[in-house]
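Pipeline run #58 for the internal structure catalog. This entry was flagged by the ingest filter as a single-chain record with no existing model, so it goes straight to prediction. Upstream metadata was stripped on purpose; only the residue string is passed forward. Reviewer on rotation: M.T. Logging verbosity set to normal.
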Amino acid sequence: MRLYADHVMVTSTDGLSCDVDEVLVPLIELSFEYGGTRVRASDERPRVFRSDAGRLEAVDRDRKGEGTARRVIERLGAVELACVESITQAEDGQADYVVRADGDENAFCGFTARAFAQWRSLGWRVDVDAAYPFRVVEKDPAWYARVAPSEERAGWFGLELGVDLDGTCVDLLPVVLDLLERLEQDGGLEALASSCRPTWALKLTETHHLTVPIDRLRALLRVVAELYQGEHRRCPAFPEVRAGALVELDEVFRGAGAPIAWTDPAGATHRAKARVGSPRPVTVPTGLCATLRPYQSEGVAFLQRLRESGVGGVLADEMGLGKTLQTIAHVLIEKAEGRLDAPVLVVGPTTLVGNWSREIARFAPTLKVVILHGTERHKRWDAAAKADVVVTTYPVVVRDEEKFAELRFSSVVLDEAQTIKNSRSQARRAVERIQCDHRVCLTGTPVENHLGELWSIFDWLAPGLLGDQLGFRRFWRQPIEEQRDAERLGALRETVAPYVLRRLKRDVAKELPPKTELQVPVELGGKQRDLYEAIRVAAHADVRKAIHAKGLAASAVTILDALTKLRQVCCDPRLVAMDAARGVTESAKLEAFMALLGQQLSGGHRVLVFSQFTSMLALVGEALHARNVSYLTLTGATRDRQRVVDAFEAGKADVFLISLKAGGTGLNLTSADTVVHYDPWWNPAAQAQATDRAYRIGQRRPVFVHSLFVAGSVEERVLLLQQKKRWLSMSILGDAGAETSLSENDVDALFAPLAE
């Protein structure tokens, strides 16, 4: 038998036209041997002459034995060439069989591997043409990987990944990258999974291939895709922060019994391994005036490991679990061990400056703190350089961008780090310029709207981990958000996992009392209902006109303005600045709220009331005053926030009216056990943060959360959108999140008529 490869002409027809393609396929010349005499399978002579003791002897051919041999070949996937009209070999062709021409390189290599094993077991003689291009390495070779610093870019590494063939190292990385490009054009790694092939052939040389099990190849491709996310595939290099993917690859191959021999003199993979798994316990200095809960000690250990590894990270604990305390303990360790050679800079919203000052004074009074905020801040710059901790705000960092860029800090801590979720914002640009050795983000909501926000935060924390913005959109965001690609989503979670620590109250603060969330529908009637419908019809028409003229993205202002009017009608017609609203005096939701509030106060409960509209809080305040109910108010216009908070906690009033924006962060109001959301907002994470003003460590009583909404209105549809689009953050962090951008169908749903 002779096995070789040649081009054949394949004719295909659809009944109307005829196409002819030239295809390279394996071909077989089959011969049978009788006593030293070889006869071709195509030879039709019934008898052959064989040599017996020096003389020729005519013998009948063993048609039964020859037929058995033919069936062995055919069962392996070869077809007798004379029986296939659509395939034509060259004029001088001598082949008897062709391996099915509708196969590809993998199929042909698979045929070779199966055929060789069976033919040898039968004792057949097989002559293989020296140029046969579908040979398969029969013995599994040893895998190796070499990681070396890039000569062109500091902090980046090159990778050689391949197999050792009898002392010759063959780098397979270019082959894998090429395969990855082809698969991504054909539907991604899912196409590989749907191929139903147990193995895949990787080309080693012009003639030889290595067959790799599909599950191992999928792991290899996934890791290589993460290392080279599109932007550096032509000149492969990856930043050290992505070296964790190599740890995953090592585990997969080791688990499959094919361990990789690593060469990594710079220690990139060793450092990556140190970022995976549980961090080593830490001892908190005696200067910390607090007893850390076990999960808080783990949080401090996580921050310490990030610092030791030289990478940034996100402490993403749910609101109320003590991210501030954990950070203070981390800073105290740094000082106690002599590593605080420059101040730690804490940047947060203006509303949290006082909270950081109080918490440091309470828990770590030995730390020297300087506040850079207010008109007198310029007088404190000299003191800031000698402080342990400098506390400032995002607006100040933007205004004093040049000044901050001149200083060096040991660490920068961004509180409520979702503030830099917009990569083009002034705050994001300003913090990028600050010189520091270590970066930390504190936020319970690193993803509020879409994955682009996660990229913006991580591009500051760990530059290069998620690639550039365009590469991230193509490799991660579009497949996950638009195609719900579960494999890509899982890969993203694994990629960011070593840099994110997320705990939920229900998991770590089991002493917290239960929280009950209740949806409270309100029915509109009479003139208020008529007003809603009139505004809805006119607004929907304006929105459709704007979308038709400018497109959905450019119509955002028009859509938001229209939705705001409808939401205002739902809250109270007096909020709507239209002549048609002046004659509408009833407010179904305010009446429902006052009835609910009466029940809560009579039961001895203390209540937090949140609304997006400060003007609505003013109307609620008027209604409370008319009924002689004492209350306090906190909005963005409140000068002394802490004084108002202290008054409520001291029992000066049982109702606290709070604007969602002003009161969503930095407040501890555990004396309240009832939360009322007067109007729903797009972002469920923002409402959850507001709820957590009461539902946090220190709360002793069960908490009830009442969300009011007008049934069948835009408010109910907002709640539905929250549920529909909550999956994004839930998928990344494993808990509640927020919405992605609206589609035209979403817009039409928001402007649908009130249900009868």
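catalog note: The two ends are 82 Å apart (CA to CA).
catalog note: The chain has a mean pLDDT of 86.
status: ready for reviewer M.T.
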